[in-house]
Amino acid sequence: MPDGTVLELVETIPAESEGRRPTRAKARKRALDILYEADLRELPAAEVLAAHRAENDPPVREFTVELVEGVEAHRSELDGLIAAHLASGWTLERMPRVDRNLARMAAYELLHTGTPHDVTLSEAITLCQELSTEDSPAFLNGLLSALLAQGDQAPL
């Protein structure tokens, strides 16, 4: 620009634009679908994931595999952390299935991947708004924020 001002262009992609989602958002949604199905059918998530990979319609993205396998591998740890941050009288089993599995997936992503925390929180809340109850996004946000705050104070 003539006056020496530098413009910075920032591209933002909405979570849903004419039915389209960014690739990693699609992978998160698919991972949540697989975790939810496994929970509902009381099957190991790895078994449900394998069936979806064999079917391959639509193809299962690598990030979906990473999330599902990560949640499965760290499930005891994740469930313990989530349970420790629930309000008195609440248990993991009392949570709606979608919220429980979304909390597990987001907690895994926050604690075990290099994804920026704000991205993970935003994506989790967006999925929660789309798929769960009216009160669930605020609940999930509080739960995940408490997990992050704990992480700032002591190793998770």
Structural features, described:
The protein has 156 residues and is mostly helical. It has one domain: NusB-like (N-utilizing Substance Protein B Homolog, Chain A), CATH 1.10.940. It has 7 helices and no strands. The protein has helices at 23-41, 45-55, 62-73, 75-84, 97-112, 117-131, 136-153. Helix 4 packs across helix 5, helix 5 packs antiparallel against helix 6 and helix 5 (97-112) runs parallel beside helix 7. The radius of gyration is 17 Å and the shape is globular. The model is unreliable at 1-18 (pLDDT under 50).
Please name the defining characteristics of this protein:
156 residues, mainly alpha, N-utilizing Substance Protein B Homolog, Chain A, 7 helices, 65% helix, globular, disordered N terminus
Nutshell version of this structure?
65% of the residues lie in helices and 0% in strands.
Query: What is the percent of helical residues?
Result: 55-70%
- Low-pLDDT sequence parts: 1-18
State the major sheet.
Answer: none
- CATH homologous superfamily title: NusB-like
* Gross geometry: globular
Number of domains: 1
* Average pLDDT over all residues: 86
User: Could you tell me the number of beta strands?
Assistant: 0
CATH topology: N-utilizing Substance Protein B Homolog, Chain A
CA(first)-CA(last) distance: 48 Å
